[in-house]
Design goal:
heterodimer, A: alpha+beta, Gyrase A, domain 2, RNA Polymerase Alpha Subunit, Chain A, domain 2, 4-stranded antiparallel β-sheet, 4 helices, 16% helix, globular, B: alpha+beta, binds zinc ion
Chain lengths: 338, 160
């Protein structure tokens, strides 16, 4: 296996290249080149959906005389961006030893506002105050990134109206609920001239005049007049635009995204290595003496349906050496994989 | 106030609603539950909870599908999708000892991803899979380093 997995393009033995064109507190725009679309897309997906952040998950409303319904407000609370810096030190509530929630897996926030003046009173995210024990003073505080440092508007109260609620914010990922997404948006673009024809542009008379060119169009060579279509070409330069919702700095989103991807891989490598030390790929779910086979017909334990190969009654996975698999060198109780 | 507040009459903490602490930690079923359902049915009610905890640590995320041989194997990944599948497929195909590699998500409502690997003589499918995983990891390392470098360069360039 003497090949270099880093070399994405045979013509250029450079490996992936990253160029940043804009970076501030809200967004980072960068170009990833000499990489494959499969990897670039994995990075995009992982940044969108799998970076742990913190968001309000439970709301207990003790007073609500506003015009908005309790559940409506509860939903709005969930979507308020909370600062997720240092969220690594927080546990997932389902993995915490506590009963329900504690300072190791959650942050409690209180919102109490009453309109006592004669004018309508807006209630902002800054009015949300963390209380109780906290793992650190940053994680779980509302994001106040606007000029007035008010945060997002939660609701408005008329004179005499009151809102009082307690929230529990927990760690989570956007795969479970979009409120845990660290990014407001991730721009992902390649091939601005559509040379690869991955996009079929709709047009009335002429696509070229009707579609505005992308910002990145000038970064790449436009197609020559009458240039033949290169059906071997693959995308090679990817333009990312990572915009934060405020909970994590944009460049942290990128590095965290890569980290999550690596953790995913490390977990699988670890599991494969463990399996090899044991009785092969079918694992030890039912103990090493499981009646299941080295073919891994029933890695997940105890299905006895006629379709799951693991059942002794099934037409495929019988326990004796009489099945088509049982007599192979690979299926006799112990796999040859280790 | 137009809206009647029934809660007001009750003591502050003892509303008839579920107490927040008792609410489930997540609305999503935990991933291991998918696997433990069949098991739990056979358990005694009292034991069920304990067993579940034990099972948690043993959830197997990769398994070999039946009909696999050393050089031609299908793997099933739990709780993985296109995020891992496509990058892994690509990098495994880069391995010159691999004859064929593809991935599929057989059904959108099942959190499962299958990878098929067929190798030439000299390596096995499982070795190719492991190598693939490590290669994606290396690729992540490189991109991560390059990004940090680029970021530092950008900051230095902006401040000078
Ligand atoms: Zn806890």
């Amino acid at each position: 296996m003497d090949y270099d997995p880093m070399v994405m393009d045979d013509a250029e033995a450079l490996g992936p290249v990253v160029k940043i064109s804009q970076a501030d507190s809200v967004r980072v725009k960068y170009e990833l080149s000499n990489a494959d679309i499969a990897f670039a897309n994995s990075l995009r997906r992982v940044m969108l959906a799998e970076i742990p952040t913190i968001a309000i998950d439970l709301v207990e409303i003790s007073e609500n005389s506003s015009v908005l319904a309790d559940e409506f407000i509860a939903h709005r609370m969930g979507l308020i961006p909370l600062n997720a810096e240092g969220v690594e030190s927080l546990l997932y509530a389902r993995e915490c030893d506590c009963d329900g929630c504690c300072e190791h897996c959650s942050v409690k926030l209180l919102l109490h506002a009453k309109c006592e003046g004669d004018e309508n009173m807006p209630v902002f995210a800054r009015d949300l105050v963390p209380f109780g024990d906290r793992i650190n003073q940053v994680v779980g505080t509302p994001v106040l990134s606007d000029a007035l440092r008010q945060g997002s508007l939660i609701l408005k109260l008329r004179p005499g109206q009151e809102i009082k609620l307690e929230c529990i914010a927990k760690k989570g990922i956007a795969k479970e609920h979009a409120k845990w997404a660290p990014s407001a948006a991730i721009g992902f673009e390649y091939d601005p001239h559509n040379k690869l024809r991955h996009i079929d542009l709709w047009f009335e008379t002429d696509a070229k005049t009707e579609w505005p060119p992308s910002d990145y169009a000038e970064w790449e060579e436009p197609p020559q007049e009458g240039e033949p279509f290169d059906y071997d070409a693959v995308p090679n330069r990817f333009y990312f635009n990572v915009e934060t919702a405020g909970n994590l700095p944009p460049d942290t989103i990128v590095s965290e995204g890569i980290k999550v991807l690596q953790q995913k891989l490390a977990g699988l490598i670890h599991e494969l290595a463990e399996d090899e030390g044991g009785d092969g790929m079918n694992g030890e779910y039912n103990g090493p003496r499981s009646p299941e086979y080295g073919t891994g017909a029933d890695g997940f334990g105890g299905y006895t349906t006629p379709f799951g190969n693991g059942g002794n009654q099934s037409s495929w996975g019988g326990a004796g050496g009489t099945t088509p698999y049982g007599t192979t060198p690979y299926g006799a109780g112990q796999s040859q994989w280790s | 106030m137009p809206r009647a507040k029934t809660r007001k009459e009750e003591p502050v903490e003892a509303g008839s609603d579920t107490v927040m602490e008792e609410a489930p930690t997540s609305h999503q079923p935990e991933s291991r539950d998918d696997m433990s359902v069949d098991q739990d049915e056979n358990d005694e009610a009292g034991e069920a909870e304990e067993d579940e905890i034990e099972e948690e640590e043993e959830v197997q995320r990769v398994r070999l599908l039946p009909g696999s041989t050393p050089t031609a194997a299908s793997f099933e990944f739990l709780n993985e999708g296109h995020t891992l599948g496509n990058a892994l497929r690509y990098i495994i195909m880069k391995n010159p000892d691999v004859e064929f590699c593809a991935y599929a998500i057989p059904h959108p409502s099942e959190a499962k991803m299958n990878v098929r690997i067929q190798t030439f003589e000299g390596t096995t499918a499982i070795e190719a899979l492991e190598k693939g995983l490590r290669d994606v990891q290396d690729l992540c390392d490189v991109v991560s380093d390059k990004f940090i470098d680029a970021r530092e360069k950008f900051v230095a360039g902006a401040s000078s």
